[in-house]
Design a protein that fits this description.
The structure is a single chain. Helices cover 20% and strands 23% of the residues. The protein is of the alpha+beta class. Strand 2 and strand 3 form a beta hairpin. The N and C termini lie far apart (100 Å).
């Protein structure tokens, strides 16, 4: 049985043997290249958000205070409650929770909350100028 000693290089077409780079058409001197479009801002990708349906939910009737310090904003929330065991007890304002946010996150919250309120027909700036006071 005859053996063939042809190599893979010998079996390739002649054009494939060339080590020269492929030819590119020369740019036309009369046509200036168009400027590249400005890059789109890319949102920084952070960790993936997982919505936990069992996460605690707090109902508050008001934000009773806030403080800013050490790079954080602390929001304190209250709710009106009464003592059902005391027949003479009136309503009390009870702190029901606090949220602490880094300042950039608090700023983003303000912007997103204002945008969402305005889309829903509520304008926080108009409410403030109409005399509505924060509680």
């Amino acid at each position: 049985m005859p053996t063939s000693k042809t190599t893979a290089a010998a079996r390739r077409p002649a054009a494939a043997k060339s080590n020269a780079p492929p030819l590119r058409p020369a740019p036309s001197p009369a046509v200036a290249p168009a400027p590249a479009p400005a890059p789109e801002p890319v949102a920084t990708e952070g960790p993936r958000l997982i919505d936990d349906p069992l996460a605690p939910e707090v109902f508050a009737t008001s934000c009773c205070g806030f403080s800013i310090g050490q790079g954080h904003v602390t929001l304190t929330f209250e709710s009106a409650r009464c003592n059902h065991f005391d027949p003479n007890c009136g309503m009390n304002r009870v702190v029901v929770g606090r949220i602490v946010l880094p300042i950039p996150a608090a700023q983003a919250l303000v912007i997103e909350l204002n945008t969402s309120l305005q889309r829903s027909g509520f304008n926080p700036s108009r409410a403030a100028t109409a005399g509505m006071m924060p509680q």
